[in-house]
Amino acid sequence: GYTWEYSKKDKLQGEDYMHSGGFASFLSSGVKYYFKETSLGLSYFIPLTQNLNDNQLQNENRITCDVSFYF
């Protein structure tokens, strides 16, 4: 799949903080296992593009894990 993230600039003492904000897009793949009222997911993301303001750390490949409970 495709994932896109955007973050507005943070505020510092009421002013936009120039070292924050930006966007990134990722190619993503994952699996989700459902069992009764619970699910367990695992996803892998590869950065495609990123435009982060100032000197922020660049995104690298990432793995995420999630657990959801349905009620």
What is this structure's SSE topology?
Blueprint: E1 2-7, E2 11-12, E3 15-16, E4 22-35, E5 38-52, E6 62-69
In helices, the fraction of residues equals under 10%
Q: Say how many strands there are.
A: 6
* Helix count, DSSP H or I runs of 4 or more residues: 0
The topology string of helices and strands comes to EEEEEE
Distance between the termini: 28 Å
For the biggest β-sheet, the strand order reads 1-4-5-6
Kindly report the oligomeric state of this protein.
single chain
Morphology: elongated
What does it look like?
The protein is mostly beta strands. 0% of the residues lie in helices and 66% in strands. The strands form two sheets. A four-stranded antiparallel beta sheet has the order 1-4-5-6, with no helix packed on it. Strands 2-3 form a two-stranded antiparallel sheet.
Brief digest:
By secondary structure, the protein is mostly beta strands.
Task: Kindly list the characteristics that best describe this protein.
71 residues; four-stranded antiparallel beta sheet; two-stranded antiparallel ribbon; mainly beta
